[in-house]
Design brief:
Strand content of chain B: 15-25%
Radius of gyration of chain B: 29 Å
Structural class of chain A: alpha/beta
Largest sheet of chain B: 7 strands, mixed
Number of helices of chain A: 22
Low-confidence stretches of chain B: none
Oligomer: heterodimer
Distance between the termini of chain A: 68 Å
Shape of chain B: globular
Mean pLDDT of chain B: 95
Shape of chain A: globular
Strand order of the largest sheet of chain B: 13-12-26-25-24-14-15
Structural class of chain B: alpha/beta
Largest sheet of chain A: 5 strands, mixed
Helix content of chain A: 25-40%
Helix content of chain B: 25-40%
Largest interface: A-B, 38 and 39 residues
Number of helices of chain B: 29
Mean pLDDT of chain A: 95
Strand order of the largest sheet of chain A: 2-1-3-4-5
Strand content of chain A: 15-25%
Number of strands of chain B: 36
Chain lengths: ~500, ~900
């Protein structure tokens, strides 16, 4: 036998040739190629690894012809000495790059189900208390205290309750949900199982965006495996479950609408209706899917639950800042040297994230601006980079952390075009319900179209600002409310380009 | 529970379930809004109703913010108004001509908030052509603001789901069906979307042609027994709109295609305007003076020569209570006979007979609002989404809220889609099925012992009857699986409040009154009478079937179902009318045909009833009509019956006279004169008075209100009814025993009119005809949504653009065997006659069964039917006839 190599099967690795390597190397006799999740160091993919005496050894950016050298053990780097990875605090992504996504054995030997086992020893109320103590906040973007949501769902009496994972990860530049679903789907499902047991839900859904076919397939396979293993189905939680053992889970694939990431629109879509945002209250925890109490949270939120139950809420609350506890997987992209996923406790500055993890600007690129929190996030310039990455500081700055996406722009970026692009995005993705978003986004885009074509007219920027204020104040959901921010911050920081 | 809050410094009492917007509106505080409607769930789309809530960040929309105790709200501020102005500017920016092309309501709001010119230059618009495919209304997308009120009302209130939003963002637009336009969609033209539209994007063609109403008069619809209230809008002496009334407890602002729009027959070119007298085969236009005199003279002569019983009158259950009372008075006091009947004979006479025997009162026990309180609704032999659409929509809403529904019907109807159980019985086996349900209820101990003990008698009689009716035996008779019978019985008995709603599928059978009795038995056995959410509730087909019977337009009872031989009544009648009350029971309509054929009935006056089209066994009816010495027909149009008449009198339509109708929940409601009848036409009540006077019995009333005073005096159950009260209150539900009585929403709460209710065991007996080798199909006849009864009105409306012929529904298997396709014409042959109709191939009917509507006289459908009728009530067996089908070989050119 020649040896065993590890190679990620994550879409990000496949995008840079992992699949081609796997195909070619499959023909090499005696070579065992183990397909794992990705470590999230996307700039290193395809990252080929081999077991060493003290952990894995890696060969970044491997090519077909590197195989003989790799098999000889030439020039490998011990994974634990890669600074990018070593400096992180991996909790949700602890097993990233290590385990096989659909191996229950791997999952178990790497701490899987410890959270569930701990939960099943507690009463539902005690589980909710543990989550409350952890001070976990919703990771989808709204940062709502998760304990409060669980408490509301627990306290609402109904003949049927649901747990729904929001896997409609639509922010450009974010992919941490996808990496969990493709890399360790069991962790998400374990979190959902704990939630279901805690609030008394017997049915669950994972609403996966249309653009994630691989994730949807892996989730379905994972559900089949867990059903066979008795974790899901009519007797999911066995006799230990005092709240009734049934929990079934289904994957539902969306139809390509960004706004279906908004929870009420998502639930409408899940019911088979047009994905339209609904006014709250009632909140889904009280009246959600089919009018029943529904615990709906982002994939990352659910995936954080097993660790909280396994290690205790107090442990989670010991990480991070005053108002933002635990870790956040940042997804740093754009014109940096080292794009990828970085899981760190809340609190490091934006500058640290870009420099220490992003490795600074890519060759030939000069920093111009950075957008945090997806297409609705504010733009920061150099002077704003000292801001600590946590909910409260961002909120004070009128910005959002969103889903942890950080996109760095360089000097080549045309800020008018960028602003126009973001407004066009909102105009395309608006659900069509509220006037400020439905009509306002188009009007704002039209003005920016004009400026971009050099046909700016006096009063345009004032009109944009005036309309922007109405969109912020009067829109029904975050899409319309946040849409003006990238545009208005672009104008604020780069006014000259708009004149 | 009230929720105190402060809005703009004013103390306001909200209620649980109120939003800031609804609480403000109740308190008279105006908050601008376009997408909110009192009929719809909160939406939060237009965003004009933004407000400040103390202690809450941002500007929540008043329409989606629930009231909270102690909440302090400010609806008006510079900042809020700035946003409102900006939102209105966005609305105007998508309208034509820089916003000037917007509808008036939108422009008015813009002026109110001081919006100047639209600042956006060359804004993109949603281009789409006007959809004018519906006969009565059109949709102009250019004026639409995508508030989705039309879509939502179609879903939430009407439950048809014909409209949707398509596209995203600015491209979002309203589509009908799968974007096929209104006419080709599943739209039922109820008009709810048009009423909800805040910007006139949906508009009524009549108003576009004749202008908006300058004034409006409230009145009652005539298109079924629901009794919807409408504001009839008038401009320049012409009706231009019928707008459903929000405050009415009957329809709460909703309507159906016919009531809302199909009043254009009023202006049909062939409306009769002059009395006509037949001379040989010619119609001679005659003056009213001459016509009335001839009528009085001819009737007088027959009475003299042949006696009072040689004369009869058939009154109309479309006419008012006052007209029905007056013509009955004419028959009893002037002619001196009880030969008075009305068209209820052919629809709900079996209900009258059955419910009188069981309960001692013939009327719906409950009100329509019981639908909201029932924990189970059982619809038996009724198709309310077609025949009583506003009630049908209400049942659909209840079902969508989760109220379980049992449908008992041989056909698949719209409601079966919502039903927990569909008991698809063989036509004519109602009694067998209901007895089978009774068997399960008895043997499984599901009866309400306390109710049976205290409120009923002869329980054992019924138990003996249902004892042999096991579910298996019942399955053999009815074709309904035994298991479904058990489930239905348990659901009905155990819900806690089961409401039974029945229609002509129960009554129009050889043993129709037994079917009604069997329903009453089930209700009594399970204690489902006398409480909200329960009862036996017949759906009256025509608008005043209830009232025409109530006021004594029947050969067997006087007004208020009083016995003709009641000595007290006899004395009172003589005091009030000055004439004795004839004692002998009169002829029922089918008896009249026999009497005419036997030569004993000589003169007949038929008011607003086309017997020559709508009665069964038409050959016989027409022959009988031909034998009469003198036939007077009073109608809006030259009906099939009028063709046999010696004299035809033009009638006034419902909007052309005053009076009252009584709806299917016993609610007496005003009918008001909205416009003048075509020149010279006398309202029917005036005609009756004139003829009576000419026959030596002066009947003088200045106004129908005086007739109601007389009815009230003679009728204990209506004693407290006056026009003064009817104008003040939303109608009055009899019994109203005195002026201070509020009316009766639920009957039999304490006792039944006959004291205790009576169980009556009724054995199943087969229908008049059963399929044979020669006549293998069972033909059921009935109504469709688009047309009304004889079609005399609806065939003269633009509904003809939607449905312009009757069709024969046939199951796909049968169609295949016969080798016919949809649209092809087939010959239908019965033992009586034959006719030709086009077929619709549909699994709505079971194999071996056929369904035909009867709205078009050219089909002569009722010539196929026999004279078979319910023994007790003479209600015809319209629902079961056996026929065979023959393929027509060559196309008839």
């Amino acid at each position: 036998m020649m040896g065993r190599l590890y190679l990620s099967q994550d879409t990000s690795a496949r995008a840079v040739g992992a699949e081609r390597l796997a195909r070619v190397w499959a023909k090499v006799p005696g070579l065992e190629l183990v397909r794992t999740s990705s470590r999230g160091a996307i700039f290193l993919e395809p990252l080929v690894e081999m077991d060493g005496p003290h952990g894995r050894i890696g060969w970044p950016n491997a090519g077909e012809r590197d195989l003989p050298g790799i098999l000889q053990g030439e020039n490998g780097t011990p994974i634990e000495r890669i600074p990018y990875l070593a400096k992180q605090t991996r909790v949700t992504f602890a097993n990233a790059g290590v385990t096989r996504p659909l191996s229950l054995d791997d999952y178990r030997t790497h701490g899987g189900f410890q959270g569930l086992e701990a939960a099943l020893r507690l009463t539902p109320q005690k589980i909710v208390e543990e989550v409350t103590v952890s001070k976990l906040r919703g990771r989808g973007g709204a940062a709502y205290p998760v304990g409060l949501k669980w408490q509301a769902a627990l306290e609402t009496h109904a003949d049927q309750k649901y747990v729904v994972a929001n896997a409609d990860e639509g922010d450009a530049g974010t992919y941490c949900d996808r990496m969990i679903m493709e890399g360790e789907p069991f962790r998400l499902i374990e979190g959902m199982l704990i939630a279901a047991y805690a609030v008394g839900a017997t049915e669950g859904y994972i609403y996966c965006r249309y653009e994630y076919p691989v994730a949807a397939r892996l989730l379905r396979d994972a559900i089949a495996l867990l059903t066979e293993a008795g974790y899901l189905g009519d007797e999911a939680l066995g006799s230990q479950a005092r709240g009734g053992g049934r929990f079934t889970l289904e994957v539902f694939v969306g139809a390509g609408s960004y706004v279906c990431g908004e929870e009420t629109a998502l639930l409408q879509s899940l019911e088979g209706k047009r994905g339209m945002v609904q006014a709250k209250p009632p909140y889904p925890a009280v009246s959600g899917l089919y009018g029943k109490p529904t615990l709906i949270s982002n994939v990352l939120t659910f995936a954080t639950i097993p660790a909280i139950l396994a290690r205790g809420g107090a442990w989670h609350a010991s990480l991070g800042t005053e108002q933002s506890k635990g870790t956040i997987p940042l997804q740093i992209g754009g014109r940096v040297k080292q794009p990828g996923l970085v899981e760190v406790p809340f609190g490091l500055t934006l500058n640290e994230a870009i420099e220490e993890f992003g490795g600074g600007m890519a060759a030939g690129a000069r920093f111009k601006a950075v957008q945090v929190g997806g297409p609705l996030g504010s733009l920061f310039t150099k002077s704003g980079l000292t801001i600590p990455i946590c909910y409260d500081a961002f909120s004070r700055a009128g910005a959002i952390l969103g889903h942890g996406g950080i996109v760095v722009f360089d000097q080549e970026t045309d800020m008018v075009e960028l602003a126009r692009h973001f407004m066009a995005f909102t105009a395309d993705e608006s659900c069509g319900k509220c006037t400020p978003c439905r009509v306002g986004a188009v009007r704002a885009r039209e003005i920016l179209d004009g400026i971009g074509l050099g046909r700016r007219r006096p009063g345009d920027l004032e009109l944009l600002a005036d309309l922007g204020e109405t969109m912020k104040a009067a829109s029904l959901c975050a899409l319309g409310q946040r849409a003006p921010y990238p545009v208005l911050t672009a104008i604020e920081h780069f006014r000259k380009e708009f004149q | 529970m009230t929720v105190p809050l402060t809005i703009d410094g004013l103390a306001v009492e909200g209620e649980n379930g109120d939003t800031v917007l609804t609480a403000a509106r109740k308190a008279g505080i105006k908050i601008p809004s376009l997408c909110a409607s009192p009929h719809l769930k909160p939406y939060g789309g237009c965003r004009l109703c933004l407000c400040h809530v103390e202690g809450q960040a941002g500007l929540p929309a008043a329409c989606t913010t629930p009231v909270r105790d102690g909440m302090r709200v400010r609806t008006d501020s510079e900042i809020v108004n700035r946003h409102r102005r900006n939102i209105l500017e966005l609305f105007l920016s998508e309208q034509a001509d820089g916003g000037l092309g917007a509808s008036e309501p939108l422009l008015a709001l813009s002026r109110q908030f001081g919006l100047g010119a639209v600042r956006y230059r060359e804004p993109e618009k949603r281009a789409a052509p006007v959809d004018a495919s519906n006969p009565y209304f059109a949709f102009d997308p250019a004026k639409c603001i995508v508030c989705a009120r039309c879509v939502r009302v179609c879903d939430e209130v009407q439950g048809t789901f014909a409209l949707s939003l398509a596209g995203r963002g600015f491209g979002t637009r309203v589509i009908a069906g799968n974007d096929v336009g209104y006419a080709a969609s599943n739209c039922v033209s109820c008009g709810a979307c048009v009423k909800e539209c805040p910007t006139d994007a949906l508009f009524e063609k009549a108003m576009a042609e004749f202008g908006r109403p300058a004034s409006a008069t409230r009145t009652t619809c005539t298109y079924c027994g629901v009794g919807c209230q409408f504001d009839a809008g008038v401009r320049a002496g012409r009706i231009v709109q019928m707008a459903p009334v929000d405050e009415s407890p009957v329809n709460a602002g909703h309507a159906c295609m016919k009531g809302r729009f199909a009043w254009d027959y009023l202006y049909a070119p062939d409306r009769l305007t002059t009395p006509l007298v037949r001379k040989d085969s010619q119609w001679i236009e005659t003056s009213w003076e001459d016509a009335l005199s001839i009528l009085a003279e001819r009737f007088g002569r027959i009475r003299e020569v042949h006696g009072p019983d040689a004369l009869a009158v058939i009154s109309s259950s479309r006419g008012t209570n006052e007209e029905n009372y007056l013509i009955s008075k004419f028959v009893r006091c002037v002619l001196g006979t009880n030969n008075i009947d009305n068209c209820a004979r052919v629809c709900h006479s079996a209900t009258v007979t059955g419910m009188m025997e069981a309960f001692g009162a013939s009327a719906a026990t409950n009100s329509m609002d019981s639908i909201e309180h029932a924990r189970l609704i059982m619809v038996v032999g009724a198709n309310p989404t077609e025949a009583h659409p506003v009630l049908g929509a209400r049942i659909k809403r209840a079902a969508r809220r989760g109220t379980p529904l049992i449908v008992v019907d041989p056909r698949t109807i719209e409601l079966t889609k919502y039903a927990a159980l569909h008991l698809r019985l063989r036509p004519g086996t109602n009694v067998a099925l209901l007895n089978g349900l009774g068997h399960v209820i008895v043997t499984e101990g599901l009866t309400d012992r306390a109710f049976i003990e205290s409120r009923t008698e002869q329980y054992e009689d019924w138990v003996e009857t249902v004892r042999p009716c096991t579910p298996e035996a019942t399955e053999r008779l009815t074709g309904v699986p035994a298991d479904l019978i058990r489930q239905a019985a348990r659901l009905y008995a155990e819900s806690g409040a089961s409401m039974c709603i029945h229609g002509l599928g129960v009554t129009e059978h050889k043993f129709g009154s037994h079917g009604v009795i069997a329903l009453c038995d089930l209700a009594l056995a399970t204690g489902n009478v006398g409480r909200i959410g329960t009862g036996i509730n017949p759906l009256r087909g025509q608008n005043n079937v209830q009232g025409s019977c109530d006021v004594g337009s029947m050969p067997t009872y006087f007004s208020g179902y009083q016995r003709l031989d009641d000595p007290d009544l006899r004395a009172l009648h003589e005091t009030v009318t000055g004439r004795p009350l004839p004692q002998k029971r009169g002829l029922k309509i089918p008896d009249m045909w026999d009497a005419a054929l036997a030569g004993t009935l000589k003169g007949l006056w038929i008011v607003g009833y086309d017997v020559a089209q709508t009665d069964p066994n038409l050959k016989k009816v027409r022959e009988a009509l031909g034998r009469l010495e003198f036939l007077v027909v009073q109608d809006l149009f030259m009906s099939e019956t009028a063709k046999y008449a010696h004299m035809v009198l033009p009638g006034a339509a419902f909007v052309e006279k005053d009076g009252t109708y009584t709806n299917l929940e016993r609610r007496v409601q005003r009918v008001r004169k909205v416009v003048d009848p075509p020149a010279g036409i006398l309202p029917d009540w005036r005609v009756f008075c004139e003829v009576a006077t000419r026959m030596g019995y002066p009947m003088r009333y200045d106004h129908p209100s005086q007739v109601m005073e007389e009815i009230a005096r003679l009728t204990p159950t209506m004693r407290g009814i006056t026009y003064e009260r009817l104008d003040r209150e939303p109608g009055l539900q009899w019994p109203v025993p005195d002026a201070g009585h509020p009316g009766t929403s639920i009957m039999h709460q304490e006792r039944f009119p006959r004291g205790k209710a009576q169980f009556i065991g009724v054995d199943y007996l087969p229908p008049g005809e059963e399929p044979t080798a020669d006549y293998p199909f069972v033909l059921i006849t009935g109504r469709i949504l688009e047309h009304y009864c004889s079609g005399a009105q609806t065939r003269r409306t633009r509904i003809m653009e939607i449905v312009d012929q009757d069709a024969l529904e046939i199951h796909p298997d049968d169609a295949r065997k016969l080798g016919v396709r949809g649209g092809q014409r087939v010959k239908i042959v019965s033992a009586r006659s034959e006719t030709v109709m086009p077929v619709t191939v549909s699994a709505r009917v079971a194999p071996g069964q056929l369904f035909a509507s009867f709205h078009f006289p050219e089909n002569n459908l009722n010539t196929l039917l026999s004279s078979s009728a319910d023994e007790a009530s003479k209600c015809p067996e319209y629902k079961v006839s056996t026929v065979r089908l023959e393929k027509i070989k060559r196309a008839v050119s």
